[in-house]
Amino acid sequence: MEKLIKNALKSAKADHMEIRINEGRGTGVAYVGKELESIGESSIMGGSVRALVNGGWGFVAFNDIENLPRYVNMACEQAMLVGDKDVSLAETGVINDVVKTQVDLDPADVSLIDKHDLCQKYNNIILSSKKVQTSSVRYADSHSTLYFANLEGSFIVCENIFCGVSVMAMAKDGMDVQQAYDSIGDLRGYKKVENFEASCEDVTKRAVDLLSAKPVEGGKYTVIVDPKLCGVFTHEAIGHLS
Predict the structure, then answer these.
(1) pLDDT for residue 89 is more than 90
(2) Can you tell me the distance from the alpha carbon of 215 to that of 202, in angstroms, rounded to the nearest whole number?
(3) What is the second-level CATH architecture of the domain 2-214?
(4) Least CB-packed of 64, 78, 151, 206 within 10 Å?
(5) What is the pTM of this model?
């Protein structure tokens, strides 16, 4: 990959150029109620080229790397069409580095069968309550590698490993339907999605308890808000409107 990218940069007729390529693979498992909705593995490949010529920018996005030199030329040609002035970019140092995510257990080292069994176990916990009408358990992991290179000589490889699971319980009593949700997901590895049984039990209990919760009358109140919920309120009420 490094040789391919650097050879493509050699043909660039630009004042500045950046190439970004992202390749990755991942797995996913999804349960909805008693049904296994989806399970499988996937892969991605994509990238972009950005060129600066006489103050004009050219940009090309792609999902294959076989024609990378052609995409480099396309970005340069686009930039030439709109460039009509001298532009000087701030000087930056040349960086050559490889950055890798440190994980306790790489999800790629865990079989798809084990990932399925984990989701099935969480799903069975939620469905064990008679008042739970349906459930949702979704697992996802991804292993992506981002390559960055520019005309000045920088070449950076960044590896990211994500793993996460989300669970939801929907309880019903007559026309009253309530749901509760929880999730965990980050770059620390597969062990973070294990031992999530207590959260599944809590989600189930919260959904069922909400069926007997008393409605709140409209008005002004002083409240103590969970940080996650406070963030959601801020996002929905202020973020979208702004």
Answers:
(1) no
(2) 21
(3) 2-Layer Sandwich (3.30)
(4) 64
(5) 0.80
